[in-house]
């Protein structure tokens, strides 16, 4: 089994040192968390499915000119990505009222928004990922006004594309979370899409029935969580042959 130096471990993924400078290996775990890590569990095969789904969507976005950190998938649970400086913000795009938006404003879940809403949250489990304004972002130096403009433009472009892609396979893209990073190449910096796009950070509902096919099934104890992730992969035409086979991760160098 390969031994690699672990760079970072998050709730759903582990980042290992890549095979060449400027790269990382992103390993997808089956671990599941909700409510800022207060609820924990395991979704069997989730890492395999999210790896495939995120690869598919990152490649599709790259084809329309959206810059991403994705290089290629390495195996069932790992992908090679470019090393970026993560901007400590979650950029949330909302198309339909759900989750915290429904709670905050007392609007019935499922209400169609007149236009897409962009929200920013500061990435901090300890603080509960608080919502922040552009004023907070620039005042605390997390991003410049130019960075914000670039992230906003990319988020809306990604949303427009994914709305159509998911609608084509019978899914509503209710809302989703994006993360961005700074990629430094040849003394130049550009903002690129990082992290992943999967049912872990997208709310996806069936167009006809509004059945939830995402991590809300885990959050709300709705059951059939594994089957929901499999259904998204199946509709995208990328369900792994023989199902989501398991694969052990690499040993970590101490």
3D architecture notes:
It is built from six helices and 15 strands. The protein has 254 residues and is of the alpha+beta class. The protein folds into two domains: 3-84 and 225-243, Phosphorylase Kinase, domain 1 (2-Layer Sandwich), CATH 3.30.200.20; 86-206, D-amino Acid Aminotransferase, Chain A, domain 1. Strands 8, 9, 10, 11, 12, 13 and 14 form a seven-stranded antiparallel β-sheet that branches. The protein is globular, with a radius of gyration of 18 Å. The two termini are 15 Å apart. 34% of the residues are buried. The model is unreliable at 246-254 (pLDDT under 50).
Layout: helices, strands, pairs:
Blueprint: E1 3-9, E2 13-17, E3 23-28, E4 31-34, E5 39-42, H1 46-63, E6 70-73, E7 78-82, E8 85-86, E9 89-96, H2 99-105, E10 112-122, E11 131-132, H3 134-139, H4 145-167, E12 171-185, E13 188-194, E14 202-206, H5 216-219, H6 225-235, E15 251-253
Helix pairs in contact: 1-6
């Amino acid at each position: 089994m390969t031994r690699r130096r672990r760079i970072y471990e998050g709730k759903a993924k582990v980042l290992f040192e890549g095979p060449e400078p400027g790269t990382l290996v992103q390993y997808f775990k089956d671990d599941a968390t909700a409510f800022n890590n207060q609820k924990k569990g395991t979704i069997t095969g989730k890492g395999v499915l999210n790896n495939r789904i995120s690869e598919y969507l990152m490649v599709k976005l790259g084809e329309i000119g959206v810059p991403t950190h994705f290089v290629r998938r390495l195996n069932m649970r790992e992908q090679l990505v470019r090393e970026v400086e993560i901007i400590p913000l979650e950029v949330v795009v909302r198309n339909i009222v759900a989750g915290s938006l429904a709670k905050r404003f007392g609007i019935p879940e499922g209400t169609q928004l007149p236009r897409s809403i962009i929200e920013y949250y500061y990435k901090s489990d300890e603080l509960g990922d608080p919502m922040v304004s552009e004023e907070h972002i620039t005042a605390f130096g997390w991003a410049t006004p130019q960075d914000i403009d670039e992230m906003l433009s990319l988020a809306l472009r990604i949303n427009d594309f994914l709305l159509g892609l998911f609608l084509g396979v019978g899914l509503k893209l209710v809302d989703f979370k994006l993360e961005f990073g700074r990629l430094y190449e040849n003394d130049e910096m550009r903002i690129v899409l990082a992290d992943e796009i999967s049912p872990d950070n997208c709310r996806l509902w069936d167009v006809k029935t509004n059945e939830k096919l995402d991590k809300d099934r885990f959050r709300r104890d709705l059951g059939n969580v594994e089957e929901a992730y499999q259904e998204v992969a199946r509709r995208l035409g990328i369900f792994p042959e023989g199902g989501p086979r398991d694969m052990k991760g690499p040993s970590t160098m101490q």
